[in-house]
Structure formats: C-alpha cells, structure tokens
C-alpha cells in the first residue's frame, strides 16, 4: 500500500477526539449525513473501506468460525460475525470478486458440521440461522458481480480471472451440499448455490437437481375480493406482493423452503401477483422455481422489470438478451408484465428500447417504472402501448395525484404503487413512538427510505397526528392503520394495485392485508385525512423532487 500523503493523513485533533469518543450509532449517522450532503465523497469512502479491508486481511485469513461446545454441539465463534461484517463491507465497496474467497472459507467450515438429531435444539437453530444468513450474503455477492457486468452495449462476459474465485466458491458449495445431503441434513445454502449456478452455468438449470425444493402443497387460490382490468383479457388482484425485500439480508433472511411455504400461503389466500426486478437479488429465480413447480402456475402473475441505471447503447440484440435473461430466471417463455426503467431522460434511446420490447413476442404486457408524466406522454406519443407505470404513492407521497392521475385516466394506464405502507411505518406500532433509529438492527432499508420521505413531507409530530387520525378511522371500520393507508391509495381510480412488500419467510401479514379490500373510505374519513395532509409539504414535494420517479434522478 502507498503511504498516505501527509496532508491526507492529517486530521484536526478535535476531530480525532470526536471519532474516538462518539458512540457507534452517532458515527454512523455522521458518515451517512456526510455522504448524503457530499455525494462526491462516496468514492473516497469506498476506497478507504477497501484499504481497511485489505490492510487487515491477514488478521482473519485463518479465522475459525465454528467450534465444538462443552456438550459437543457446534457453536459459532465471535469471528463469524466479524467475517460476515467484512464480507458485507466488501460487497458494498466494490470488492465483490474478493468476497467469494471469504465466503468459500465459511462454506468449507460449514461442510463438516454434523447436526444433533433434535431439530428443536435452540443452540443448533441459532447456528443454522447464522449459516442461512451466509446464503443471503452469497446471493448479494452475485448481485454485486452482475452489476459490474453492465457495459454500454449491454452485459459483458466474466473474465477468466473473475470466474476463478466464483468457480471455487461453487465447488465448495457443491461439496458442502453433498456432505450435508450424505448425512441426511437439509442443505441450507440453496439460494446461494442457485444464484451462482445461474451466473456461471445459466444453460444448466437442473445441474443441481437434487437440491430442488419441492413446492409445498397448497390449496387452490381464493379469488381476491377486488381485482382490476390490466388489459382487455386479464383481471388481476388489487394487492400485489413485492419482492424487493428479497434483495438484501438487511431485511432479514430466510431459507428457500421457508420462502416456498410463504409463497404457497400467499397464493392460496389470493395473493397471486408478485412484483420483482432484474436487480432484486434472487427474487426472479426463487419465484420462477416456485411457480414452475406449483400446480397453480397458470393462476400466478409475475411483474418483473428491466432497469437501465447505466449509460448504454440500445440495440435490438441487447434488449432481446435482457428479455431472454428474465425468461430464463423466471423459468418461463413469456413475461406477464415487463416494467421498463430508464435513468437518463436526456438520452431518448428509451423510446427505441420500448419499441424493441413491444416487438418482442415474449413480452405479453409492457409497463413503465418510475416514469414521470412528461416522459410517459412521450412514450405514448411514440406509439408504444403501455399498460402500467410503477410509482411511489402513499399518504406521505401523493405526487401521482397532481399530474399523473389525469394522464393515466386519459390513456387507460394503471398505476402499480409502492411505498404505500412506508415500509411498515404506517402502522399502529409507530403511534406515540420516537422517530426511528435508522441504524438499529431492526430498521429495514425500506424504513430508511420512507423515513426520509416523511421528513420531506412534514414533521414527525405531524406524522404522529396522521397515525392517530388513521387509527380512529380504522376503529370505525374495524380494520388497522395499514389497511386505511392502503385503502386511501386504492380509492384513486388510476390505481390498479398497491404493491405491499413482503419479507418472505421472515414476517407475514397476508390475512391482515386482505382487510384493505371490499370497502371504501367515506367523505368523513377523507375529510379527516385531508385535515392532516393539507398541513404537510405535499405540494412542495412535487417542486423539490419533481414528478414521480424524480427522487431517483
Ligand atoms: N420501483 C421502485 O423503485 C420500487 C421501490 C420500492 C419498492 N418497490 C416495490 O414495492 C414493494 C413494496 O416495498 P416497500 O419498500 O415500498 O415497502 P411497503 O410495501 O411500504 O412496506 C412493506 C412492509 O410493511 C409492513 N407491513 C405489511 N403489511 C402490514 C400490515 N398489514 N400491518 C403492518 N405492517 C405491514 C411489513 O413490515 P414487517 O416485515 O417489518 O412487518 C412490510 O415489510 C417492493 O417489494 C417492490 O416490489 C419498487
């Protein structure tokens, strides 16, 4: 490593005192605040993180992460948590090709573990949960690797040098699976194994067929109480289940069998429509596996996305390749709904991409994601037929009512809305609570995102007033605060469905969410809600953030 230049090594003594003394949560807030206000620091932050990881690597090269306890049971050592944190930092700072060797080290230590026969052993459960969280880190590493492959012409191949550590990890995973299956133990790193096979050997979908989880049996889907017309032929439930929450262990992590269980439960209850994206971790893969092995696959609906976040040269080949990848991951030859996100409005190639998508016979319906009204208009004017736009829409972010709703009505386009529950902040449990501690272990990325929205919308006190108002309306209708928040959005005719995010296998509210359907807010309810909203900064939000999707650009 090169020695730091004297100037960059120097930090004011007072500053050093703060760094040494500030509690960790405070330090996190300060770093986040600095990066938010000075995004240009991000590359330095990442570079320093890489330096730290490299400089301290030798301390952890032979870390023992499992040991035998007094009763001969396996337990995790403190090194396990350190390794996991280091891996997550590596994924975050661009060391995704270095992380696989640490993951491989963990997998190699998982392989010889022999579980006790009693499945209810709490210590053993804790060990299995820790191993399952490594599965999540493997999935996230693969997602980070995939992001590095975007080039202007589409997606590039992995180099031999990049493939080597991934291949080594794959072989360790296969050896670990064989060892566990050989001992009659349920292999718990299936999601990581699938994700890596999908990356390295996409043409061998059943390479690992012995690990394919059987679809849990489920009852035939109950029809949902409210549906909407997507196009002339298809009616869909008015609540979709969102799978962004599968994209990172930061929402909690569940094994594939647990997720499959929850899919079955949702589908039986009528939640047959799911929203996912090319960049939501292994959401497409795991949903594709579930649907293709279910007896009710024809009743299910997958809305996925093609998101262009990097500059690219649009060509028919690149667009078709993305559709092929979506089909492959979803194990289907037709996409029910493909929602297109384009980051750069000043580059009009999005119109070409949408035209290619419209021409692709594998795309049954075409939608947009985070487009503003002006650019939706351009898409419609270009002759492309779109049926949906996915945007943020909630009591806290009512921008869609200001311009987009009218446009949607004129062109028969339905909104699919996210953020409607503010990541779970629009719920009873937040009444009379202090503002969330953004870095507590229980805060999810959704809550971080929507807490920032609440601060743009108004104060935490006004939000509390809103929650109390919603509670009194909820009591009148014998439902919950979340139901009222969902209902408020569903009552706008431009809304096709609300997408409610689900931490599959981690938490579950499907039955509660059914209570959002089959009724409407009356004039008195609307008046009470409006009494709070009119004191918010909702109109200024349109100006400061721009129309829908503006917060991403
Ligand atoms: N296109 C985009 O840019 C974009 C952006 C964000 C999201 N999305 C899509 O929209 C989906 C929604 O995600 P989101 O992040 O916006 O989250 P959200 O739907 O606003 O909130 C989801 C959270 O709400 C809580 N919840 C659900 N039902 C509840 C109930 N009945 N009572 C109380 N709490 C309840 C759950 O929290 P607990 O699990 O803690 O209980 C759940 O994790 C995503 O999965 C994704 O598909 C798209």
UniProtKB/TrEMBL annotation:
Question: Do the record's keywords include tRNA processing?
Answer: no
List, in alphabetical order, the Gene Ontology terms for molecular function in this entry: oxidoreductase activity
**Coiled-coil residues:** none
Record flagged with keyword Oxidoreductase: yes
Superkingdom of source: Eukaryota
Q: Where is the NADP-dependent oxidoreductase domain?
A: 239-533
Q: Name the Pfam families on file.
A: Aldo_ket_red
Record keywords, A-Z: Oxidoreductase
**Alphabetized InterPro entries for the sequence:** Aldo/ket_reductase_CS (IPR018170), NAD(P)_OxRdtase_dom_sf (IPR036812), NADP_OxRdtase_dom (IPR023210)
| Protein name as catalogued | Aldo/keto reductase
């Amino acid at each position: 490593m090169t020695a730091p230049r004297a100037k960059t090594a120097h930090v004011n003594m007072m500053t050093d005192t703060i760094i040494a003394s500030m509690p960790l949560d405070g330090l996190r807030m300060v770093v986040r605040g600095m990066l938010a206000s000075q995004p240009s620091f991000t590359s330095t932050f990442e570079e320093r993180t890489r330096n730290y990881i490299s400089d301290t690597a030798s301390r952890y090269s032979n870390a023992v992460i499992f040991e035998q306890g007094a009763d001969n049971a396996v337990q995790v050592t403190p090194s396990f948590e350190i390794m996991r944190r280091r891996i997550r930092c590596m994924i975050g700072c661009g060391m995704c090709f270095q992380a696989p060797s640490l993951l491989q080290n963990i997998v190699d230590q998982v392989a010889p573990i022999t579980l006790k026969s009693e499945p209810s052993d709490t210590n053993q459960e804790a060990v299995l949960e820790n191993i399952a969280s490594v599965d999540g880190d493997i999935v996230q590493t693969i997602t980070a690797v995939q992001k590095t492959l975007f080039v202007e012409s589409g997606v590039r191949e992995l180099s031999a040098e990049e493939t080597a550590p991934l291949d080594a990890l794959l072989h360790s995973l296969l050896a670990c699976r064989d060892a566990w299956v050989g001992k009659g133990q349920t292999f718990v790193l299936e999601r990581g194994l699938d994700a890596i096979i999908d990356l390295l050997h996409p043409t061998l979908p059943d390479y690992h067929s012995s690990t394919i989880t059987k679809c849990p049996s489920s009852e035939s889907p109950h029809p949902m109480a409210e549906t909407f017309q997507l196009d002339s032929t298809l009616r869909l439930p008015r609540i979709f289940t969102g799978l962004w929450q599968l994209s990172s262990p930061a929402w909690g992590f569940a094994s594939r069998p647990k997720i499959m269980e929850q899919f079955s439960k949702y589908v039986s209850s009528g939640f047959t429509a799911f929203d996912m994206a090319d960049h939501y971790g292994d959401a497409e893969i795991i949903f594709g596996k579930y649907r293709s092995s279910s007896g009710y696959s024809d009743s299910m609906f997958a809305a996925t996305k093609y998101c262009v976040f990097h500059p690219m040269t649009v060509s028919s080949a690149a667009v078709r390749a993305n559709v092929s990848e979506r089909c492959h991951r979803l194990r289907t030859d037709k996409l029910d709904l493909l929602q297109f996100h384009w980051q750069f409005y000043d580059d009009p190639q999005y119109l070409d991409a949408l035209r290619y998508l419209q021409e692709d016979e594998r795309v049954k319906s075409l939608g947009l994601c985070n487009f503003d009204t002006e650019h939706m208009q351009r898409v419609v004017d270009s002759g492309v037929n779109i049926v949906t736009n996915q945007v943020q829409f909630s009591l806290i972010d009512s921008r869609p009512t200001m311009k987009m709703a009218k446009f949607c009505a004129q062109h028969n386009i339905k909104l699919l809305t996210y953020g409607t529950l503010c990541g779970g902040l629009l719920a009873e449990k937040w009444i009379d609570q202090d503002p969330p501690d953004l870095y507590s272990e229980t805060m999810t990325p959704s809550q971080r995102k929507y807490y920032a929205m609440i601060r743009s919308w108004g104060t935490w006190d006004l939000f509390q007033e809103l929650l109390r108002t919603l509670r009194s309306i909820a009591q009148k209708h014998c439902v919950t605060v979340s139901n009222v928040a969902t209902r408020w959005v569903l009552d706008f005719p431009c809304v096709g469905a609300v997408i409610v995010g689900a931490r599959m296998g981690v938490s579950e509210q499907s039955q509660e969410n059914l209570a959002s359907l089959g009724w409407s807010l009356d004039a008195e309810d609307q008046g009470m809600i409006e009494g709070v909203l009119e004191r918010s900064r909702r109109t200024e939000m349109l100006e400061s953030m721009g129309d829908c999707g503006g917060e991403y650009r």
